[in-house]
Amino acid sequence: MSNISNTRIDADRLWDSLMEMAKIGPGIAGGNNRQTLTDEDGEGRALFQSWCEAVGCTMGLDQMGNMFARYEGTDPDLLPVYVGSHLDTQPTGGKYDGVLGVLGGLEVIRTMHEQGIKTKHPIVVTNWTNEEGTRYAPAMLSSGVFAGKHTQDWAYDRVDAEGKRFGDELKRIGWRGDEEVGARKMHAMFELHIEQGPILEAEGKDIGVVTHGQGLRWIEVTVTGKESHTGSTPMHMRKNAGRGLALITELVHEIAMKNQPNAVGAIGHIDVYPNSRNIIPGKVVFTVDMRTHLLDKLNDMVDELMEKAPKLCEEIGVEFSAEIVGQFDPPAFDEDCVAAIREGAETMGYSHRDIISGAGHDACWINDVAPTAMVMCPCVDGLSHNEAEEISKDWAAAGANVLMHAVLKTAQVVE
Ligand SMILES: [Zn+2]
Fold first, then answer.
1. Does the keyword Plastid apply (predicted)?
2. Are the beta carbons of 40 and 158 closer than 8 angstroms?
3. What is the pLDDT of residues 42-74, one digit of tens each?
């Protein structure tokens, strides 16, 4: 191939495949309900496999049901470049979350196959099992096992709301393979995904070059005061745990605002005791959720909370205690892979910006075991995990084109 930079994916073919996949497990409002390890998941997998085999791929399947469609390179001894995402959806999910990343990867192979483009490294299109985590918590379960975050036995023992085990359901739908999970080594891994946020569309950018994911800390706080009558307790004698909640709510907001851009913070779950209209709250238990993309900054945010919140509580005569109940350090994606995506956007003449992924993705786990990066395209109103999730054909094509150029560069096109 003399001028690879002019190569483009087939936008109509990609779009038609997205619509064809969306017919499997339709939702009730135009989206999809193709939850993991359902019959519909099995049907979607079979369709994906048939499409892969039609362009000469061979399908690998591991013991978590992760699918690996391999397109041979000119040097089979080189480690493959991986590309993919997930085909499972939320119960009221959209047609593009995850699916675009898998079928975008397939479109890269179809384009290579059609145009006779060869790479030295093999390319493998992957469908990771149970990214969504709705039927079986946690999210990104099988990429997590692949990256050594969870054991396979633990994953098999996850149960859904009806008490059905993950391991049993995987076997039932016929997609439990023999391959040892995580045994594959990767030269690199790329994931295309819709943004699931409003930034790209609001700024009129075609492409998000994902440099980091968000890390998070969940802190469970207990503020203890004294239950007493709201009518007969004089104001100066109250120990109102509800005020502690109010002050800390503001504090969390201030800390996040001080650490812009990309830091966020909120109080999500709140239990007020005794939760009666004429009793001053004696105890409030709530969770603080803080996230940002830099580890030092994230730890500083938590430190500031832990330093200031007890003082605020002391000033109003209530007690503060807290413990970290969940944490995930922010992934920083591989610089060379990120550069390949940025270069792909430049080559294609797309407007782009660096962006942080607010949501978790399979790429966040794989980043721990292989050089990884992500490319994002906009979605309408930033809406996702909703049947009304929408993207344009042009956005999908732009994302897949950038994905292709990043993959071709990394897998070394044979000129
Ligand atoms: Zn997703």
1. no
2. no
3. 999 999 999 999 999 999 999 999 999 999 999
How many Å is the Cα radius of gyration of the chain?
24
State in Å: Cα 97 to ligand 1 middle. 5
Per-residue model confidence as pLDDT tens digits over 233-247: 999 999 999 999 999
**CATH number for position 268:** 3.30.70.360
- Determine, yes or no, domain membership for 1: no
* Residue 317 neighbours by CB under 8 Å, 6+ apart: 225, 238, 239
Secondary structure, 3-state, 229-245: ECCCCCHHHCCCHHHHH
Is residue 54 within 8 A of residue 108, CB to CB? The reply is no
* pLDDT for the residue 1: 44
Q: What pLDDT is recorded for position 76?
A: 86
Is 319 annotated among the ligand-binding residues?
no
Q: Would residue 154 count as lying in a domain?
A: yes
Cα-to-centroid distance, 108 and ligand 1 (Å): 19
161-168 mean pLDDT = 97
How far, in Å, from the CA of 98 to the mean position of ligand 1? Answer: 4
* Among 328, 360, 381, residue at a domain's last position: 328
For residue 380, what is the DSSP state?
G
Domain count, the chain: 2
Same domain, 131 and 62: yes
Structure tokens at 165: 């085990």
253 appears as a binding residue in the annotation: no
For residue 350, CA distances in Å to 13, 42, 225 come to: 20, 36, 57
| Ligand 1 center to 118 CA (angstroms) | 29
Q: Does one domain contain both 154 and 238?
A: no
Is the overall model pTM greater than 0.85, yes or no? Answer: yes
**For residue 385, is it within any domain?**
yes
Per-residue pLDDT of 104-146, as tens digits, reads 999 999 999 999 999 999 999 999 999 999 999 999 999 999 9
Domain end residue (candidates: 277, 309, 328): 328
Q: Residues 180, 104: one domain?
A: yes
- Kindly give the distance from the C-alpha atom of residue 79 to the centroid of ligand 1, in angstroms, as a whole number: 26
Same domain, 362 and 295: no
Taking a 5 Å cut-off on Cβ, the residues next to ion ligand 1 are 97-98
Domain that holds residue 231: 215-328
What is the sign of the dihedral through the CA atoms of 278, 281, 282 and 283? positive
pLDDT digits (tens, 9 = 90+) for 69-83: 999 999 989 999 999
